[in-house]
Design a protein that fits this description.
The structure is a single chain. The protein has 7 helices and 8 strands. About 40% of the residues are buried. The protein has a single domain, classed as 2-Layer Sandwich (Peptide Methionine Sulfoxide Reductase, Chain A). It has a 6-stranded mixed beta sheet, with helices on one face. Strands 4-5 form a two-stranded antiparallel sheet. The chain has about 220 residues and is of the alpha+beta class.
């Protein structure tokens, strides 16, 4: 008989793969070309930032990913305080990308398809609390327009078994997390949480989006 830990790991992995089985989601119908050249940033929250960080670090056109906190104030932007679930912060990643190589809409498609489950309210997998909620922090009106249109498109198409609960909120500041959280998957590939919850995301990224996958 499997030990409680083995059962938990198997259950968690099975849940992640079941979620992935209903994907990939369709591309966004609204995904305009950038008005001007130059890099842009996107701030996305989808549960523990370790896995979301790793996914976007393997996407072509992305030059930098930073794990951090968004939605609260600078005074409460540290891991212990955020973990209380009472700061307004969500564990987030700041993605710097070249829109000439990958569009904002394509980033959102990866976000919804493999980076997290957008139908879970104030939780993600084994993690529970407002700090693990699904949020798109938009930088400007164009990002807001694309994000809201895409969510409406996916809900109308019934791309998921349940309604998307992702919030679309104006960015009010992003605060990098502590150094030990940065690039966590690459530095700790055998960490049990990573093996169960995050390595399958990279496998799905490579499987579903081979044209976007960067094996660096």
């Amino acid at each position: 008989m499997a030990s409680p830990l083995q059962f938990f790991l198997t259950l968690s992995l099975g849940s992640a793969l079941l979620h992935a089985a209903s994907l990939p989601v369709p591309p966004p119908a609204l995904d305009p070309a950038p008005a001007a050249p130059g890099v842009q940033t996107a701030v996305l929250s989808g549960g523990c930032f370790w896995g979301v960080d790793a996914v976007f670090k393997h996407v072509k056109g992305v030059s930098k990913v930073v794990s951090g906190y968004a939605g609260g104030t600078a005074a409460t932007a540290d891991y212990e305080t955020v973990s209380s679930g009472r700061t307004g912060h969500a564990e987030s990643v700041q993605v710097t990308f070249d829109p000439a190589r990958i569009t904002y809409g394509q980033l959102l498609r990866v976000f919804f398809s493999v980076a997290h489950d957008p139908t879970e309210w104030n939780r993600q997998g084994p993690d529970e609390g407002t700090q693990y909620r699904s949020v798109i922090f938009y930088a400007d009106d164009e990002q807001k327009r694309v994000a809201e249109a895409y969510i409406a498109q996916l809900n109308q198409a019934k791309a998921f078994r349940k309604a998307i609960v992702t919030q679309v909120v104006a960015s009010a500041g992003f605060y990098p997390a502590e150094a030990y959280h940065q690039d966590f998957l690459r530095r700790n590939p055998n960490y049990p949480y990573i093996v169960v919850n995050d390595l399958p995301k990279l496998g799905q990224l490579k499987k579903q989006f081979p044209e976007l996958y960067d094996g660096k």
